Amino acid sequence: MSSLFDDDASGQRPASGTGTPLAERMRPRMLDEIVGQDVLLAPGKPLRAAIDRDVLQSIILWGPPGSGKTTLARVIADTTRGRFVPFSAVLSGIKEIREVMAVAEERRRRTGQRTIVFIDEIHRFNRAQQDAFLPRVETGDIVLIGATTENPSFEVNAALLSRSKVFVLRALAQEDVVAILGRAVADGERGLGPEAPAIDDEAIAAIARFANGDARAALNLLELAAASAPIAPSSGRRHVNLLHLEGLIERRALLYDKTGEEHYNLISALHKSMRSGDPDASVYWLARMIEAGEDPLYIARRLVRFASEDVGNADPQALTVAVAAKDAVHFIGMPEGNTALAQAAIYLATAPKSDAVYAAYTEAAVDAHAQVAEPVPLHLRNAPTKLMKALDYGKGYQHAHDEPDAVTDMPCLPPSLSGRTYYRPTDRGFEQEVRERLSRRDHQRRPRTQEP
Fold first, then answer.
1. How many domains does one find in the chain?
2. Which of 163, 251, 345, 406 is 20 to 30 A from 367 in CA distance terms?
3. What is the domain extent for residue 417?
């Protein structure tokens, strides 16, 4: 276990012609080859400096599939002077962890050499397994590198998380994926090689869109397209065009891929069925996603978003129901959590609808970016010190509880936005009551604002 993924002693990985998948052959071997993570790895950035100087401390790499977590761990393995030990959270148990921890402690005591432990899919380790690493992390015998697609706040032991720095890897932008694909086409040693087919730019762009930020998925599809491309009669050379690619994407999405086009088609159908008030269609599309193996927490997140965006204050209880469904799924897991999701979807479908909250925030965000960022008016500021009071902080503030019906005519927006209205409640559901409350507020304010 002295090197990552049992590479040969030289550290070199298989090149083309060995049956190794394209995505593996094209995996970056140096930091400068990693695409799309400049926020973390550009020269001068703290993580880059720690790797270059071999002073890395324990870290958690959090990012979506295909964003480069394992690649970054491999680069660290190739550059570090420490002993590098990989773990798979799927294959390793508490016995293996304790054995490696004991060896790491002894090695550091005898030679001073650190052991860098890479844990792929660390979120799959249970609490007891994660706890086994903690003493050696605390003493500095090991440097832990964990990789996860799940939120570390929920999936990583709090004690372990507090002793690690979390770095968030972003899903690759489409142009990043296009660059990776172009490199694979052009690389004669590790890429498609001299027998690479002609590939239209439109096909490359389509692969990048379909991959949705996942470099591995993009390279896998490119390899499949190149291997199955028909020979063009005019050139006698294989040719990948958009028509050929569309056939591959359709079959792949329907049969294998829950993160491709069919994934988005199904969540769109669920969302629009709920918005249209159709509980039967809503529960059907929900069942299609769950039975296909979709991540239930992804569905729960979409329900929570829908509760605020499409129901809002027309039924404030909708957000409570959606969050409760998310908590239920997280607590009892699947398949038992399926009814909690169904309950929430049916509730949201039958709830009165309003996008007034969504519209209000959208308009306010536009003004926040477009308008001059005026200082907070003095009467809205606290004045905890004598100096602040002398500078009129808090002067003119009207305490609502001291006013009739707890309503003031005090302006709270910056002067340039005075009178601006963002929230316009509908007359549906509870928002009708909110609308009447605002109307009564405006009526109560009017006599005071008309005083000389």
1. 4
2. 406
3. 372-449
Q: In the 3-class helix/strand/coil scheme, how is the chain assigned residue by residue?
A: CCCHHHCCCCCCCCCCCCCCCHHHHCCCCCHHHCCCCHHHHCCCCHHHHHHHCCCCCCEEEECCCCCCHHHHHHHHHHHCCCEEEEEECCCCCHHHHHHHHHHHHHHHHHHCCCEEEEEECHHHCCHHHHHHHHHHHHHCCEEEEEEECCCHHHHCCHHHHHCCEEEECCCCCHHHHHHHHHHHHHCCCCCCCCCCCEECHHHHHHHHHHHCCCHHHHHHHHHHHHHHCCEECCCCEEEECHHHHHHHHHHHHHHCCCCCHHHHHHHHHHHHHHHCCCHHHHHHHHHHHHHCCCCHHHHHHHHHHHHHHHHHHHCCHHHHHHHHHHHHHHHHCCCCCHHHHHHHHHHHHHCCCCCHHHHHHHHHHHHHHHCCCCCCCHHHCCCCCHHHHHCCCCCCCCCHHHCHHHCCCCCCCCHHHCCCCCCCCCCCCCHHHHHHHHHHHHHHHHHHHCCC
| pLDDT higher than 70, residue 249 | yes
Residue 91 pLDDT grade (very low, low, confident, very high; cuts 50, 70, 90): low
In terms of domains, do 41 and 131 share one? yes
Same domain, 275 and 329: yes
| Residue 16, pLDDT above cutoff 80 | no
- Name the band, by pLDDT with cuts 50, 70 and 90, for residue 8: very low
